[in-house]
Automatic annotation (TrEMBL):
Cellular compartments annotated: Nucleus
Gene3D superfamilies, per the entry: YVTN repeat-like/Quinoprotein amine dehydrogenase
Organism expressing this protein natively: Coilia grayii
Pfam family, one: WD40
Keyword terms, alphabetized: Nucleus, Repeat, Transcription, Transcription regulation, Transcription termination, WD repeat
WD repeats: 17-58, 103-138, 235-276
SMART domains: WD40
Protein name (database record): WD repeat-containing protein 82
Length: 313
């Protein structure tokens, strides 16, 4: 089944889970699409089975809190950042709920975490104005970049380069093998005083970069030239909430939630809005991602919702 405007417009909430007492700050699908794992401001980690459509288990990180949770490539393991007392990144085995390794180094809150799509490398960005490069097999930082402001960062789909959004006005592209030589490309965007950049993602085909903000605008860039292809607005975000924006797996559409529980979908090529979906969320939709393998997506406030299409196009 192919994603089209009509199929997207037909999506409805199939299941709602009320496992959390506070907002879900992040979730991540496994690469096979069979599970999704969430982190919440209530200090819990909830693992869901996407095929059966039910929560499987809940773990807690009471002391440190939990944010920016990401699956690694090893089965049943995740990395995540703290949102409480400590800025160390933790590598957790879900199998026996034990920490495998700690990654100390940042001295302010970690605000970006991206796992390489191909190996055990990951990058983290922090309010300490640095990006650090790590390997899951070693607690020592493998590389360090000092920047001029708060960073957002992400790997490209091949895992060869990563992009850093700096100070809400520049995107810098680094080659992973020689990032210490500095960026090989820098794109300067018009500075917007009204909002800060909160996220950066590549499309799966590697051709596009999506920059999300804590205002009412998303920007879509050409990943090679840095030109702004489209700016997307018209969704509600008056309180400066961090709302996650995502590509669909085919790189054809862009989605974001809003503070009023609605989901807006645009065509990446034309820039036209193709769908407005009502998730009946009780709070702002802070997290939104399409399943990488199955025709379903998830959205979250303090509740988690699984969506399914209601037509076969």
């Amino acid at each position: 089944m192919k994603l089209t405007d009509n199929v997207l417009r037909s999506f409805r909430v199939a299941k709602v889970f009320r496992e959390n007492s506070d907002k879900i700050n992040c979730f991540d699908f496994s690469s096979n699409g069979e599970t999704v794992i969430s982190s919440s401001d209530d200090d819990s980690i909830v693992l869901y089975d996407c095929q059966e459509g039910k929560p499987k288990r809940t773990l807690y990180s009471k002391k440190y809190g939990v944010d920016l949770i990401r699956y690694t490539h090893a089965a049943n393991t995740v990395v995540y950042s703290s949102n409480k007392i400590d800025d160390t990144i933790r590598y957790l085995s879900l199998h026996d709920n034990k920490y495998i390794r700690y990654f100390p180094g940042h001295n302010k809150r970690v605000v970006a975490l991206s796992m390489s799509p191909v190996d055990d490398t990951f990058i983290s960005g922090s309010l300490d104005k640095t990006i650090r490069l790590w390997d899951l097999r070693s607690p020592n930082c493998q590389g360090l970049m000092h920047l001029q402001g708060k960073p957002v960062c992400s790997f490209d789909p091949e895992g060869l380069i990563f992009a850093a959004g700096v100070n809400s006005e520049m995107v810098k592209l680094y080659d992973l093998r020689s990032f210490d030589k500095g960026p090989f490309a820098t794109f300067k965007l018009p500075y917007e005083r009204a909002c800060e950049w909160t996220g950066l993602k590549f499309s799966n085909d590697g051709k596009l970069i999506l920059v999300s903000t804590n205002g009412g605008t998303l920007r879509l860039l050409d990943a090679f030239k840095g030109a702004v292809l489209h700016s997307f607005g018209g969704y509600n975000n008056s309180k400066g909430v961090i709302l996650e924006a995502s590509f669909t797996p085919d790189s054809q559409f862009i989605m974001i939630g809003s503070e009023d529980g609605k989901i807006h979908v645009w065509n990446a090529e034309s820039g036209m809005k193709v769908a407005l979906l009502d998730g009946k969320h009780t709070g702002p939709i802070t997290c939104l991602q399409f399943n990488p393998k199955f025709m379903t997506f998830a959205s979250a406030c303090s509740n988690m919702a699984f969506w399914l299409p209601t037509i076969d196009d």
